[in-house]
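Quick one, T. Sequence first:
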Amino acid sequence: MLTCQLLCINPQNMLLTLFDLPSHFQIDWFSWLLAGLAIFTLGISKSGLKGISIIIVTLLALVFGSKPSTGILLPWLLIGDTCAVIYYNRHTQWRYLKKLLPAMMVGVVIGTWVGKDLPEKLFKQMMAVIILATVLMMYWWSRKKDKKVPDRWWFAILMGLMAGFTTMIGNLAGTFTNLFFLAMRLPKNHFIGTAAWLFFIINLFKLPFHIFAWHTITWDTLKLNILLMPFVLLGFVVGIRLIRAIKDQYYRRLILILTGIGAIIILFKQ
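C-alpha cells:
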C-alpha cells in the first residue's frame, strides 16, 4: 500500500509542499521549464552577454503574468548583479554612473506611479508594447550604418529617464543603457563592469517600490526565488565561459524574432 501511495505522489505537488508555495504557483511542468530556462538565461546575461535579457522578461511574463513577473524577477536580477559586481568590479567606471543614475531613479519613480493602479490587462498591454518597441529599436540599431550616438548632457538624462521607466514597468532598461555606454565609447570590460554596478544599484532602489507600492514581492515570491536560484548561478558560470568565445551577432537576430513573437503572445494572451 505504501509503495502504491509513493508511486501516486505528484512530483510537482511535492515541490510546492516542500517550499510551501501557494496555489497560484501551481503551474504545469512546461511552465516550470520555461521559468528555469529564463532564469538560466538571466545568469548568462549577467555574465556580460548583452541583448538577451529581453527574452527573460517575455518568458516570465508568459508563465507568471505581466505585473507579478516584474517583482518575481527582481531578486533573481539582484543575485545576478551581485555575481557580476564581484567578478567585474575592477573594470567599473564610476564617473559614467554619476551621469546616468539620477535620471534613472527619477524614471523608476515615474514608472511606479504609472503602473501602480493599472489593471493587469492594461499593464500587460503596456509591457507588450514596450517589448515590441525595444525589439524594433534593437533591430533598427543593428541595421543602422552610422553607429554614432550623441554624448551630450541631455542624452544621459533622456536615456536615464527611459531606462528607469522601462526597468520598473518591465525590467527592460538594457537597450537604453547600452546606447548610453556606446555613446561613451566604453571598452568591453569597462562596459560590463559599469553596467554591473548600475543595475545592482538601480535594482536595490526598486525593491521598496515592489514591496510596499506594487506588492509584487512577498514571502511567497521569495520562496520561489530560492527554489530557482541555482539556475542563476549555473547560467552565470556558463556565461563567463561563453563570453570569451561567442559574438552576439550570431544569435541576436534569432533572439529578436523569438522575443517579438513572445511579446505578441503576451499582448493577445487572455
